[in-house]
Design brief:
The chain is α/β, with parallel strands linked by helices. The protein is built from 10 helices and 6 strands. The radius of gyration is 17 Å and the shape is globular. It starts with a strand and ends in a 7-residue tail after the last helix.
Length: 226
Amino acid sequence: MKPALVFDWNGTIIDDADALLQTTNIILGRLGRAAIDMQTFRDRFDVPLSVFYRNLGMSDSEIETVDSDSSAIFHDTYEPLADKAPLRNGARCILETARQQEISSIIVSNHIVDPLRTQLRRHGIDDCVAEVLAFESRATQFKSMSKGERLRRYMQAYNLNPGSTFIIGDMPVETDIARDLGLISIAITGGCVSESRLQAAQPDYLIEDHHTLLTILQDRGLFETS
């Protein structure tokens, strides 16, 4: 059975927390609400986005307005900002090293497949990713199969070994998926969720960047050391 690296996308590979905060504040401004800071964003961010909006105190009618037309307000604001977002520190290195050592890298995300693949091409890392598991369209976002179920089916189809599969993400949900599927969980700070929330989820490892991840994978024997 094959080992693999499973990465979340937003806040994990791409450094888009600022883009998401800006998007949130534009939406809040349109509703006549005050802007929030990054700490508040990280303390309250959640998915589906309707949960996040409720955490911010939005009414049901406000949430319905934002969610209407397949969340066009969110996507039309976020995507141009994401086009300027860099990769997280060390992300390119870890993906390229995995490719060189023939370790599969998979992205499992609550984002949408086509814009995510566009970002992979923009950063020149599309050839480092074996598969993108995400929502098919805006219309199906958060309405079809969950991240955990997508990953479970993929692992069964490709005979991936849970004991040597690492899932890396910036939200507690990745740690939850790891527990459900028997994976090794690595939570990365500096993304969309506060460090205290990540610690409370009790991942196997808590890291600040992908350079630390490289060391962990070498220590676990997944990557050869030079």
